[in-house]
Amino acid sequence: MSQQSPQLSSASTISRYFHRLAPLGLSKHAQLRQSIIHALEDGELQFEDKLPPERELGDMLSISLGTAQKALSGLAAEGYVVRKQGIGTFVGQARSAIQKAWHYRFTDPHTGQHLPVFAHFLRRGIVGTGPWVDHLGPDPAGYIRIDRLISIDERFNCYSELYLPASPFQPMLDIPEERLEDINLKEILDAECGYPTTEAKGAARVVQLDARLGAIMKLPEGSWALRINILGKARRQAISYQKMFVPPTDCELDMDFIGSS
């Protein structure tokens, strides 16, 4: 009895998961994305398995080429798949979602489950005075600023600016950038600097995004977003000030800030 080729096998696997997810009412893009992720997590797609070409996927699942391209582009950005020019698309080694994502616990309106959160490091450096000084107090060494793009299940992007007093948090300038990807930074503040975040509180208001933030979050300039200013403390001492921007979404945000995700 002849065996299916790896590519035909991956096609049938994706198709099976795709139709299994249909009752959830997801967009076709999200449905295809979740099909591949679930098949990978269940072990039915393996590292370096070759996937069908985008056009074949579209024809097989009765979705547009653009939808297939959008789903695979997002998966490639997260490392779930790897595109090799002129060769094809292969299953990659998936990124790990942030564990205990204190401030980014969004609930899927269809499943009621918290969505996976991924963080992409953008930049860091030393800055001077700003609103954070009123919350963190003066520091002659300045303040460390860490910018990250936060992907919520590849459905939408949030943006984070984290400010730390530089004197007690100098190790944060030397940590390799890759360690600032896909991790709750509070874990590093505790492990590397000895400051566990024991309390956090926030205040929110609706703002319009300027051109820079709109481009980062992939939204038009002037789009409305929720800005949440969050003060983190370690044993009643203020240690971090974060500006968090959330775009309009039908996913509910859990705002208790306890960190029990």
UniProtKB/TrEMBL annotation:
> What keywords are assigned to this protein?
DNA-binding, Transcription, Transcription regulation
GO molecular-function terms, A-Z = DNA binding; DNA-binding transcription factor activity
BP term (GO), one: negative regulation of DNA-templated transcription
Q: Does the keyword DNA-binding apply?
A: yes
Q: What CDD domains does UniProt report for this protein, alphabetically?
A: WHTH_GntR
| PROSITE patterns cross-referenced by the UniProt entry | HTH_GNTR
The record ties this protein, via InterPro entries, to:
Bact_HTH_transcr_reg, Chorismate_lyase_/UTRA_dom_sf, Tscrpt_reg_HTH_GntR, UTRA, WH-like_DNA-bd_sf, WH_DNA-bd_sf
Top-rank taxon? Bacteria
Every HTH gntR-type domain range = 26-94
Q: Which PANTHER family match?
A: MANNOSYL-D-GLYCERATE TRANSPORT/METABOLISM SYSTEM REPRESSOR MNGR-RELATED, MANNOSYL-D-GLYCERATE TRANSPORT_METABOLISM SYSTEM REPRESSOR MNGR-RELATED
Protein name, as recorded: GntR family transcriptional regulator
Which species?
A: Allopusillimonas soli
